[in-house]
Amino acid sequence: MGLNFRSLVLEDKKIFDKFAMPQKGYLNSELNFATIWLWDTESRTQIHVQDDLVIVRMICCDKRIYFPPLCDDALLPHAVDLIAQESAREGMPFEICGLTEKRAALLDRTKHKITTERWESDYLYNAQDLITLVGKKFHSKRNFVTRFRSAHQFDFRAYDEQSDRENILGLFKKWNETVAHETWAREHGVILRALDNWKDLDLKISVLYVDGILVAFSAVQATNSQVGYTYLEKADTSYVGVYQMINQLTAIAHFQNVKYINRQDDMGIEGLRKAKMSYNPVMLIDKYRVKP
């Protein structure tokens, strides 16, 4: 008898909340519902639910991509066996992506090929570092913030659907024209999902205006004391220091009560890696892929 998969829906957030994986020390983004749901812009993600086990996968043309199973560590080898059996029944190859080193070590390497790639590692920051920017290593960030503050009268506030939605979409379009980012189409869908469902996802969306013009926005989440997640952060770089400003203001507003901030991976993009490293992460969460 096979697993019973159905389409992932917004209401499945409560299932992820029940397992509370971040509170158990799993701080990578793959075990966070908003990460999965926001990026499921083509509705290719499916979920199988049991009392003590949840398996989530994304349907691709030539294989199945599985997220780390939601379960206690003791059940993980059994969950991987179920995934292997399901894939054999469907006649499709599979991969499990996003396992932490601790969980990957629980699996039998004689049965599975386990690999890791640097570009998939999540960047984890000390929340107080990004709030205060104290110390020599943040000297340049403080300078950019100071330059922005001295040059502009600005307004930083919470997102308002009536007055901010179109401005955010316009800023994102302008940002893409500047950087010609290869993930533009998917990120556009992610932004639309965030703007349409921010309350249900417990997102905090913030906007930064200068002289009535939107120059930056962010979308984050902090639902427990262990980790906060940054999902979106875009800015008009013609304003010097704008990224450093939106980063710090967002941290001050939303991450006072968390230990770490997860800003996800760099997708192998050199400029993005350089930017993420410049904020001095306290940890890179290596993530492992499992294949037969």
Describe this structure in words.
By secondary structure, this protein is an alpha+beta fold. The protein has 2 domains: 6-121, Aminopeptidase (3-Layer(aba) Sandwich), CATH 3.40.630; 124-264, 3-Layer(aba) Sandwich (Aminopeptidase), CATH 3.40.630. It has 10 helices and 14 strands. The protein has helices spanning 13-19, 33-38, 76-90, 101-104, 127-132, 139-151, 161-179, 184-197, 242-254, 270-277; strands at 6-7, 45-49, 54-59, 64-66, 94-100, 113-116, 122-126, 154-158, 204-210, 213-221, 227-235, 260-262, 283-285, 287-291. The strands form 2 sheets. The chain has a 7-stranded mixed β-sheet with strand order 1-2-3-4-5-14-6. A hairpin with a 2-residue loop joins strand 9 (204-210) and strand 10. Helix 6 crosses helix 9 (242-254) and helix 7 (161-179) runs antiparallel to helix 8. The chain starts with 5 loop residues before the first strand and ends with a strand. 35% of the residues are buried.
Class of the largest domain, according to the CATH hierarchy?
Alpha Beta
State the fourth-level CATH superfamily of the largest domain: Gcn5-related N-acetyltransferase (GNAT)
Query: Largest beta sheet, briefly?
Result: 7 strands, mixed
Query: If you compute it from the alpha carbons, what radius of gyration comes out, rounded to the nearest whole angstrom?
Result: 20 Å
Mean of residue pLDDT? Answer: 92
